[in-house]
Specification:
With about 290 residues, the chain is of the alpha+beta class. It is built from six helices and 15 strands. The chain has a four-stranded antiparallel β-sheet with strand order 5-12-10-7, with no helix packed on it. It has a four-stranded antiparallel β-sheet with strand order 9-8-6-11, with no helix packed on it. Strands 2-1-3 form a three-stranded antiparallel β-sheet, with no helix packed on it. The longest helix is centred in the first third of the chain and has 45 residues. About 5% of the residues have low confidence.
């Protein structure tokens, strides 16, 4: 009886050992297959080729990128783990693409905008010389645009018989010696913009004049000549446009894409073709709406 129990114990222990060896065999012999499967998966993944400049390109074999023509490179597991919107480049590829990086910081955005324009007269300094007498242009002292004119300079001569009665009144007032009538006659001629010198000449000579000098009241450069010899003009008819060019405007043409970067008060540095090698400074004072 004891012998049977001992035999049964040995049998039980043997079965346990066999079961243990079998379980161990399953555990340690099953993992190599899994490793082989994983390795084959990695190998299959490494067989995908991509472009370092265009990572969206994926091919199953080597070749050239259809976009830039660069040789494709194997897609590594590390590259697959990148964000789909991220771009991975080698150091050489980054140099070829001229990629620049900087630390993220908070600062004012600055952009250099290149514009082309032209220099024009300041509209606030542009004056029109009108005719203060009605009559015929007998002579032009200033004949072309670009000519410089000074205040007090004779620029034209007008034949105007309309001033004959007013001059006769002045001559009679001088003869009478009445100061009030004389002052009234002088003021009447001054309304036609005759100068004190012209009025004094009439008083001294005692002769009626029919041709009168047109005197410039401003200084500057003639921008436009409005009349020719022999033209008949009325009071207020424009004769010349004269501009003071000591201060000018620089008008730049901005593209629509640049308008967001241009603001009133922005600093400007510009050059002029007629003065090579010299730079001028200024600020944006007006933006045409």
């Amino acid at each position: 009886m004891k012998k049977n129990k001992f035999s049964n114990s040995i049998l039980f222990i043997s079965l346990l050992l066999i079961a243990g060896f079998f379980m161990g065999w399953l555990v340690f012999h099953g993992s190599p297959n899994e490793h082989k499967h994983e390795a084959s998966t990695v190998e299959k993944k490494s067989e995908i080729w991509t472009c370092s400049m265009h990572p969206q390109i994926r091919k199953e074999g080597p070749g050239q990128c259809p976009i830039c023509g660069m040789d494709l490179i194997p897609l590594t597991q590390e590259a697959e783990q990148l964000d789909p919107n991220a771009i991975s480049m080698t150091e050489d590829a980054a140099k070829i693409a001229e990629v620049e990086t900087s630390m993220v910081s908070t600062k004012e955005l600055v952009k250099e905008v290149r514009l082309y324009g032209k220099i024009e007269a300041d509209e606030r300094l542009l004056k029109t010389l009108p005719a203060h007498l009605a009559g015929r242009i007998d002579e032009l002292k200033v004949n072309f645009t670009g000519e410089e004119v000074h205040s007090g300079q004779i620029i034209a001569r007008i034949y105007s018989p309309e001033l004959v009665p007013a001059q006769q009144e002045l001559i009679e007032a001088v003869k009478m010696g009445d100061l009030s009538i004389l002052a009234a006659a002088r003021n009447k001629l001054k309304e036609w913009k005759l100068t004190d010198t012209q009025i004094q000449e009439i008083e001294k000579s005692g002769e009626v004049k029919t041709r009168f000098d047109v005197v410039s009241t401003v200084s500057g450069i003639v921008m436009t000549r409005k009349v020719n010899m022999g033209d008949y003009v009325q009071i207020g008819s424009p004769l010349y446009e004269i501009a003071d060019l000591h201060r000018v405007w620089v008008l730049f043409d901005g593209y629509e894409s640049d308008l967001a970067w241009i603001h009133k008060g922005n600093h400007l540095t510009f050059s002029v073709r007629s003065i090579p090698g010299k730079e001028f400074q200024g600020t944006v004072s007006f933006i045409d709406p």
